[in-house]
């Protein structure tokens, strides 16, 4: 008779604890791939602009949970570094649209490549089957997180003051 080993199904709190630890370790690994000349706050702006090209300052400030004046100063510095372009809206001259510049896009591409090299060094230490399981789990996590973020954004857009 064959005895099959049953692994318990991990509870969300267990997975959250391990995922949090993995996130902290990622921060350390990614810290080796410096984000200079952009600060962590500026990097967040660049990542948001990459996914929401042409958003206005107020929407960006809301995404950052910040104030428009603080967000404007962040964008001033990013524009001075050549990472962000500001364009007056074609429909409302009072509104300025924000775009990731080609230099900003190149910066993000380079940063991702350096971060991926750091990760590859760690992943080569893992058995192939564990890498496959990690990939499958991360793909499911990304899908669930993207759905939640999208649903949250849809919900906040329909609220009234």
Précis, in short:
The chain is mainly alpha-helical.
Please, could you describe this protein's structure?
This protein is mainly α. The chain contains 6 helices and 3 strands. It has helices at 12-31, 40-51, 57-64, 68-80, 102-123, 128-157, and strands at residues 55-56, 84-88, 96-100. Helix 3 packs across helix 4. The longest helix has 30 residues, at 128-157. The chain is globular and about 60 Å long.
Percent helix = 55-70%
Q: What fraction of residues sit in β-strands?
A: 5-15%
Q: Quick check: average pLDDT?
A: 87
Task: Choose one word for the global shape.
Answer: globular
What's the count of strands?
3
Terminus-to-terminus distance:
66 Å
Q: Roughly how many Å is the radius of gyration?
A: 20 Å
Low-confidence stretches: 157-161
**Class from secondary-structure proportions:** mainly alpha
Number of helices: 6
List keywords for this structure.
single chain; 161 residues; mainly alpha; 3-stranded antiparallel sheet; globular; disordered C terminus
Mind sketching the topology for me?
Elements: H1 12-31, H2 40-51, E1 55-56, H3 57-64, H4 68-80, E2 84-88, E3 96-100, H5 102-123, H6 128-157
Antiparallel strand pairs: 1-3, 2-3
Helix pairs in contact: 3-4
